[in-house]
Every structure is written in structure tokens, then in C-alpha cells.
Design goal:
Elements: E1 3-5, H1 11-19, E2 29-33, E3 50-54, E4 69-72, E5 88-91, E6 107-110, E7 123-129, E8 143-148, E9 164-167, E10 178-181, H2 185-197, E11 208-212
Parallel strand pairs: 1-2, 2-3, 3-4, 4-5, 5-6, 6-7, 7-8, 8-9
Antiparallel strand pairs: 9-11, 10-11
């Protein structure tokens, strides 16, 4: 198993080595030691490998991930798994702002809390937060699913399109055009699958579903000037 010590090696060298891996590589398990809050660790991976990062990471860790399974045993700075395409990113601690922003696919699991703007402009990503999320989360979320076991801050789902937001705790306030919706069998199946994949054993009946009221993106003559 390749082991990269970032107390000695540079992040640029690590990312270059990961980018050069062929998709049929036999170097499928990587260990990254002493990240020490450095930025852009393990970004742009395009191979079905596993990367274990032992410690806290800075901005944009695991961004643009494709097919890799990345585990971070620490906290993460701004933009964790930004523009993720596929694969799984699992964070053992807390995430700063904009976790999973613009994600197009894959699964992001945050074992702790996520700060403001979690899942902004989601475009297909699935996000499971086992703690709580901050304000303006799922802002302009287009598609995908956000599951929150804790509470949600102000303006949840502001200007949301067709993403689904499942919240188990309290919601401080809803953003523009976001409303509570009935939890139908289709949404229950989606939620159950995501909980299973994230290793969460709670009832789907303890969640509420929020989504678009579909008022903002339809023309109404009263809104014309």
C-alpha cells in the first residue's frame, strides 16, 4: 500500500501520482499521513481506488472525485468534495462551508456537522449529514438528495429546484420557494437506501421531506414589471 507523508512530500506530488494512475491500477489502497490542514488534497481522482487521509484537511479536499472511495479521519475546510462526480467521500469529523457544492454524483457522508451552504447548487450528488447543517444549505439545489439527521439552519432550500431534502431534526426556517412535502413511497425508498449506504439505523418515519413549491421558475404575470 503506498503511504504518502505530507510532512515530507508536497500535496502537488501526491495529486500528480494519483492522477497518473490507470483505471486498472493494482495500487488501489493509498494512505495519506500528516495532512495538517493543507488544501486540495486528493482532488481530481479518476480511478476506482481507496484513499485514507489520517488527519484534518483544508479547503477543497476530494474535489472533482470520480470513482474513488476517500475517507478523512478528521475535520474538513471549505468546499469538501466540491463538484464530485461519483464514488464515496466519508468525513469522520465536521465540515466547513459549502460541503458537496455543485456535486453531480456520488455519495458524501459527514459523520459530524456541516456548516453553512451545505449542498449548494447540487446537481445529482447524495449527501448524508449525521449531525446538523448551517444556514442557506441546499441553496439553488437542482437534483440529488440531502439527508440530515440533526437540525437545519435558516433558509433551508432557498430557490430550490428539484432536489429532495430529508431532515430528522428541527428546521429553523425555509428559504424562498421551499416547502414541506408528503413523504411518499418513492421518497421513502430513496431515503431508506441512503441511510443503509451511510450505515445509519433509524426509521424513515422520523424524517420530514422538503422540496420545491415550483413557483419561482414558472412565469406569472403578477411578477412582470
Amino acid at each position: 500500500m503506498p503511504v504518502v507523508d505530507l510532512a515530507v512530500a508536497r500535496v502537488r506530488e501526491l495529486n500528480k501520482a494519483l492522477h497518473q494512475l490507470p483505471r486498472n491500477t493494482n495500487e488501489t489502497h493509498w494512505m495519506v499521513q500528516n495532512p495538517a490542514g493543507q488544501h486540495s488534497i486528493a482532488v481530481g481522482i479518476d480511478a476506482p481506488i481507496e484513499v485514507m487521509i489520517e488527519g484534518h484537511v483544508g479547503y477543497y479536499c476530494a474535489g472533482m472525485n470520480k470513482d474513488a472511495q476517500i475517507t478523512i479521519n478528521g475535520n474538513a475546510g471549505v468546499g469538501l468534495a466540491e463538484n464530485m462526480m461519483s464514488g464515496v467521500v466519508r468525513l469522520a469529523g465536521d465540515a466547513s462551508q459549502a460541503a458537496g457544492a455543485t456535486g453531480r454524483g456520488g455519495l458524501l457522508i459527514i459523520e459530524g456537522n456541516a456548516s453553512a451552504r451545505c449542498g449548494i447548487s447540487m446537481k445529482g450528488i447524495d449527501i448524508v449529514v449525521k449531525g446538523s447543517i448551517g444556514p442557506m444549505s441546499a441553496f439553488m439545489a437542482q437534483t440529488g438528495n440531502l439527508v440530515v439527521l440533526g437540525d437545519a439552519g435558516e433558509a433551508l432550500g432557498d430557490s430550490i429546484y428539484e432536489a429532495r431534502l430529508f431532515v430528522r431534526g428541527e428546521v429553523k426556517s425555509l428559504g424562498a420557494d421551499c416547502e414541506e412535502k408528503p413523504l411518499r413511497s418513492e421518497e421513502r425508498a430513496i431515503l431508506s437506501d441512503l441511510l443503509d449506504r451511510a450505515g445509519v439505523d433509524v426509521s424513515v418515519d422520523s424524517f420530514r421531506l422538503f422540496g420545491s413549491a415550483r413557483r419561482l421558475y414558472h412565469f406569472h404575470v403578477d411578477n412582470a414589471y
